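Please fill in the sequence for the structure shown.

STRUCTURE ENCODING:
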């Protein structure tokens, strides 16, 4: 039986003590603490198993895991707050949290829609987008991707151009309302990415949509790093 290496046994104990000290230095929410311990625990296990790592590398792995998990938790909490605000202010809009991002789907049921073969925003659509503009200004540290999609009615080339103009219409109105233009990226896919069957009127209606993805930007990440250093 292979004898235990006393030096290696002391390493995880030291790292656990370090972890405990760091946790005690800062008040954390349950979600943040869970991410913190999970990442650090994984790093400690990796350090025990990977005997080829130096002690400095093991400690670095733990601290790196701690920082990454804590920054991720701070960003996630901020994005959760924003998603909740969107759901409260715009209850008819489909809102989904995907990893760090917030995905919003605007279709005929959620208050943003267009007349056939048109890309101009009607008054009802503008009212919905105004609510989003207020929230985007309240949470300024994000990048925004706007995607245009259509059903399969008409020529494929025409639908591709139409999806572009519809996405740009949403972007342009948000900019007009005061959201910084540099935050936006516009993408358009025409009829190439249906979410529902185009064989039914309901499916066509849902495929005529504009999707908005809100992602944390580098400034929010810097703020999160600065917060854990306080």
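FILLED IN BY: designer on duty
SEQUENCE:
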């Amino acid at each position: 039986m292979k004898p235990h290496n006393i030096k290696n046994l002391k390493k995880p104990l030291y790292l656990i003590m370090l972890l405990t000290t760091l946790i005690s230095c800062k008040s954390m929410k349950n979600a943040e603490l869970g991410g913190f311990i999970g990442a650090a625990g994984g790093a400690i296990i990796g350090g025990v198993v990977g005997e080829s790592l130096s002690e400095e590398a093991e400690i670095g792995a733990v601290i790196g895991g701690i920082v990454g998990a804590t920054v991720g938790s701070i960003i996630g909490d901020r994005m959760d707050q924003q998603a909740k605000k969107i759901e409260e202010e715009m209850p008819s809009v489909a809102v989904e949290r995907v990893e760090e991002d917030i995905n919003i789907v605007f279709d005929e049921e959620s208050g943003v829609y267009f007349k056939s073969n048109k890309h101009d925003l009607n008054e009802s659509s503008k009212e919905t987008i105004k609510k989003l503009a207020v929230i985007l200004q309240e949470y300024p540290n994000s990048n925004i991707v706007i995607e245009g999609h259509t059903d399969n009615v008409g020529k494929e080339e025409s639908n591709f151009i139409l999806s572009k103009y519809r996405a740009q219409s949403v972007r342009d109105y948000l900019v007009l309302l005061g959201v910084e233009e540099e935050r936006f990226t516009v993408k358009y896919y025409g009829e190439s990415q249906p979410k529902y069957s185009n064989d039914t009127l309901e499916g066509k209606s849902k495929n005529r949509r504009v999707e908005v993805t809100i992602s944390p930007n580098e400034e929010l990440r810097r703020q999160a790093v600065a917060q854990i250093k306080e």
